[in-house]
TrEMBL record:
One Gene Ontology molecular-function label: 3'-5'-RNA exonuclease activity
Keyword Hydrolase in record: yes
InterPro entries hit by this protein: CCR4/nocturin_mRNA_transcr, Endo/exonu/phosph_ase_sf, Endo/exonuclease/phosphatase
Key words of the record: Exonuclease, Hydrolase, Nuclease
Lineage: Eukaryota, Discoba, Heterolobosea, Tetramitia, Eutetramitia
The protein's name in its UniProt record: RNA exonuclease
UniProt-listed Gene3D superfamilies: Endonuclease/exonuclease/phosphatase
UniProt organism field: Acrasis kona
Domain spans labelled Endonuclease/exonuclease/phosphatase: 17-291
NADP keyword on record: no
């Protein structure tokens, strides 16, 4: 993931947001659902929270250009569209992009891998029975004040194939563990690992639970076990569900943010707040996308893991 430097251990407060903005190419049931009607209200929601790290899903080229313009020079975008045509050597379709506040972070490296058997080979062919090509975009950064190293991963899993979601979990966890091993080799002290995305599966489904199971590198003892921020939050705000389909009675929870501090579960970030934002688009009775965004505020407080986190893994329920 690139060369880094030893980072300091000063406390760090961060705000992470995940937001599926619904791609602008959809044929909508109502004119009010179209991107041109929604986009300013969506920007208002993002700016209200002013996240340090923003993971987004379903972003098409026209939406990416708009986001870059409206979020302004303080945010740096990372990522490529998910489909690649080897004949034309051009990318197309949706980004699972990351925007980060460049006043807070210096980017060290970034990339995208494909959720397939050949993750480092860009493709336009869905894998593992998926309906669509799926990707994961990552960025490695250094927090400018503390020197804290942060690795953030953002993804959008398939909505049809449960096998594709399970395989995506396995691949992502392997890549995250590899990232931790490389950072350890480079002498980085206790990096933050964070994950955002639309996982297209509800909390108690095997695909989502597999993301929370421990994965240990036997040679180094480095342990990946992500903390589900909703369970760990001191304060929870907003409704339970994140997917609305522009209908506020819909209450499916399929979007998530996970974190891990360092190379084991002996340390943990304090999740100060977890919010599902339900601000309506002005003059309507729906939110600015078919998903509600999630926003978490975290502080690295070096807490011991809670029994609640173990419960998720042992009893296979959330």
């Amino acid at each position: 993931m690139g060369n880094t430097v030893q980072n300091m251990t000063a406390p760090v407060e961060l705000k992470i947001m995940t937001y599926n903005i619904r791609n602008s190419g959809m044929k909508e049931k109502k004119k009010e659902y179209e991107w041109g009607y929604r986009r300013e209200g969506l920007i208002e929601v993002i700016k209200k929270h002013n996240p340090d790290i923003l993971g987004m899903q379903e972003v098409l080229d026209d939406q990416m250009k708009f986001l870059i313009q409206r979020l302004g020079a303080d945010y740096t975008p990372v990522g490529v569209p998910r489909e690649y045509d080897p004949r034309t050597k051009k990318y197309s379709s949706e980004y699972s992009c990351i925007f980060f506040n460049n006043k807070r972070f210096e980017m060290l490296n970034n990339g995208t891998f494909w959720l397939s058997d050949t993750p480092d080979t860009p493709s336009n062919v869905p894998a593992w029975g998926a309906a669509c090509v799926r990707i994961c975009t990552w960025v490695l950064m250094k927090e400018r004040t503390s020197g804290k190293i942060v690795a953030h991963f953002n993804t959008h899993w398939d909505h049809v194939s449960s096998q594709a979601r399970l395989n995506s979990s396995t691949l992502m966890r392997t890549r995250m563990l590899d990232a931790l091993k490389k950072l350890k080799q480079e002498g980085v002290a206790d990096p933050l690992l964070s994950v955002s995305g639309d996982f297209n599966t509800e909390p108690n489904n095997p695909e989502l639970l597999s993301m929370l199971k421990p994965l240990v590198d036997e040679e180094t003892g480095i342990k990946l076990q992500l903390d589900y921020t909703k369970l760990s939050a001191k304060v929870r705000k907003g409704p339970n569900g994140t997917y609305t389909d522009f209908d506020l009675s819909e209450n499916s929870l399929i979007d998530y943010i996970f974190v891990q501090d360092g190379y084991s579960t002996e340390k943990s970030w304090n999740v100060d707040s977890y919010e599902v934002d339900d601000q309506l688009l002005p003059g309507t009775n729906f939110v600015p996308s078919d998903h509600r965004p999630i926003v978490v505020s975290i502080t690295n407080g070096h807490l011991t893991c809670t029994e609640q986190e173990d419960y998720v893994v042992v009893n296979n329920k959330i």
